[in-house]
Amino acid sequence: MSDTTRALGAPVLRREGRDKVTGTARYAAEHTTPGCLYGWVVPASVASGRVTAIRTADALAVPGVHTVLTQDNAPRLKEPDDPILAVLQDDRVPHRGWPVALVLAESLESARAGAEAVHVEYATTGHDVVLAADHPGLYTPEEANGGYPALRERGDAMRAFDAAPVRIDATYTLHGLHNHPMEPHASTARWADGHLTVHDSSQGSNAVRESLAKALGLDRDRITVISEHVGGGFGSKGAPRPQAVLAAMAARHTGRPVQLSLPRRYMAAVVGHRAPTLQRVRLGADRDGVLSSVSHEIATHTSRIKEFVEQAAVPARIMYASPHSRTEHRVVALDVPSPSWMRAPGEASGMYALESAMDELANALGLDPVELRLRNEPQTEPDSGRPFSSRGLTACLREGARRFGWYDRDPQPATREEGHWLLGTGVASATYPVLVSKAGATAQAAPDGSYRIGVNATDIGTGARTVLAQIAASVLDTPQENVTVDIGNSDLPPAPVAGGSSGTASWGSAVHKAATALVRRLDGHTGPIPPEGVTVTADTGEETAQESPYARHAFGAHFAEVAVDSLTGEVRVRRLLGVFAAGHILNSRTARSQFIGGMVMGLGMALTEGSTMDPVFGDFTESDLASYHVPSCADVPDIQAHWIDEDDPHLNPMGSKGIGEIGIVGTAAAIGNAVRHATGARLRELPLTPDKLLPYLP
Fold this sequence. Notes:
Elements: H1 17-22, E1 37-43, E2 49-55, H2 57-60, E3 65-69, E4 92-93, E5 99-105, H3 108-116, E6 119-124, E7 143-144, E8 148-149, E9 151-154, H4 157-163, E10 166-174, E11 186-192, E12 195-200, H5 205-216, E13 223-226, H6 242-254, E14 258-261, H7 264-270, E15 277-285, E16 291-303, E17 324-334, H8 347-365, H9 369-375, H10 393-404, E18 416-418, E19 421-433, E20 440-445, E21 451-454, H11 464-476, E22 483-486, H12 503-523, E23 534-539, H13 541-545, E24 553-565, E25 571-581, H14 588-607, E26 639-644, H15 662-665, H16 667-679, E27 685-686, H17 690-693
Parallel strand pairs: 1-14, 10-27, 12-13, 16-17, 21-22, 25-26
Antiparallel strand pairs: 1-5, 2-4, 2-6, 3-5, 7-8, 9-17, 10-15, 11-12, 11-14, 15-16, 18-19, 19-24, 20-21, 20-23, 24-25
């Protein structure tokens, strides 16, 4: 094996890094063509009801305003595959912020002024936007997000809980959260000779093309969607959003290119959010800490437009050995925007509650929290009985404890002080499933000895181009600099979205297969490479259609040290350390970046981030980055990510697991457990803001 194959796993610099820092990387709202119109949405200002009149005369009188689209003149859509895309089709208002008009103008300023001049009249109805554990509308659905059964029972969890000598019964509250990527949701659409081209800020241009084709009643071959550079998504761009449909409709109606970028304050209502959850966790154990019963029950909300159920109880089905288990999701439809995916949906919110309850159990037992987790390691996946393809959680806990200096701590709470600062440490486990979907790729050898890979992957800032080049280079036995990678265009071989930590596994498997086929083709080729090159195409339909006999998950352990100001209630995270078991790491530089990014997002979840629903006005009050507080560099002075390099032959040709989301999963619980250790107070509602802590401080 030559040295060039060592490119797989090496800390290779991101290929597009220079383009981004020099401004040559172009995003969806930077593909402005001559004659382009700019759009500005008019959002509904009531929480429930119907539009009775839209008066556009004042808007049309604004200099530069070209057109105002409303339910009366907007192009008619076919029934879309996602109900949130059925915009400007009727007079309904399912929630505050729903688009009721679109102003198109020669400049962005004129479009905004025109939108402010549109007068809308409504017939309102009473609205209900508050999730409560005793809400009469709560029901148990068939499935939670991801196709998981909403209810799973093994044994008799309630009877075993009642019989357990040590019990924890606690309810944890997590308010809504919003993704807030740096690049707002934007689309630029143009028609030419009956063909629609859309530059869209999306995690998957194939999915956007499919949705546009269905909504517009077009053959998919008449649509090209390009997502070449995407400034973050965190799940909010994992499905087509209304701005793409609005831009395409407007371009068709006006015959001119249309660019639509959502203002940040509008995003909370139309691009999804992590739904709030009320989570009751009951753990029963013997006096040695061995679990006999695990129960995790979730109440959450969805919109009246469609059902989306955050699968927060699912992690409890696979984490710890217990002969008795009950996990249930209940949901209520309210007059709220449709929830959707947010980084590690289900796992991030569910593991916060489960890992907080495990810490409470350790405290009740007087047992070290790391040791408690080690004592409840399952031999097989508890919910399915399948063997794990690999399970590195114990290695992560032990290595993390060693690196963190965990066993040097005083386990007693509220005993360490530095002046008016109270110090504490906490730990939590993390897990995320290994997901993979069918993908296609091409591999081409050129006469000059270079190679070109084509796959419709999406780089949302994670370095996908770089890792795919490394995968191809390792198969082709060539330096990775000798491989060009084309991504982000729906005209390329189809590939799934960048979501569910499945992107690299899905796209990379197709690239690996295509590159392997090209090597075989070249081995049998005689003479020089023709001018057009030698090209092969492959897809992973056969491989992904086979259900694995193994339970495949990534695991991790998070350790946190916090300081709590006893005078103000402020929480400062002094150290965060994560150790992860995520298969073979394909690029150590970009992997560390992803792990750290997830941990920072988990810190925000723990301490600063929250979207609260105003019960009177029916909308989220934190609608911009001045009120929705994400962590800054000053909030993370010491953050480290390490990993156990697993040899797992049951995954994919690269032996890799997804890493984009597991970094967030256990962070909030580790910080919350550290706050409890520092103060002696157990708070069960995030974020841990000073106003919540102050009543419990000396």
